[in-house]
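Quick one:
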Amino acid sequence: MTTGGRPGVRQEWEPEDLIEIWTLLEEDQERLRNKSGANRLGFALLLKFFEVEARFPEDAGEIPAPPVSYVAHQVKVPTEQWAAYDWSGRAIKRHRMEIRRAFGFRECTEEDQAQLAEWLAVELCGVELSRDRTRGGGGGPLPQGPAGAADAGAYRPAGGLGGQHLRGAVLRVHGGPAVGGDSVPAG
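Output:
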């Protein structure tokens, strides 16, 4: 449950939950040994966030204050350093790469997005191929708009799935970040 309008990231944390979820393990501490200051805290927070959410935060505000304070205490870096973490520099790119590797993920490619869209259409949606059925409320194919983007207005999955969630997932695959963030399992 969230507050503050951020989907998926809970804002209220009980002490036992902080300990269970945000405690840095020995292997986490080993990954931090060559990092200092804002980079040390930033890496630690990205690492634990990825472990919990299987994606990276969009910005610093997505990680609530209690986990930031708890992790900052563990890495012996002042909490205020979180505001100094560079969200667009080389360090965060390296940090993300290292974290993906640690969890067996790699960066999502356009080919991954195309494969996911195809899988969703074939295996999950059960979309009918008749345009006449689409107009009549039955299911239909994903019509293509400019630059290959799906036209959400003419799409309705068969089988009664609430099309809103699935349509959003397909649209993100076609025109934005992949479902589940910017990473996919390696392999």
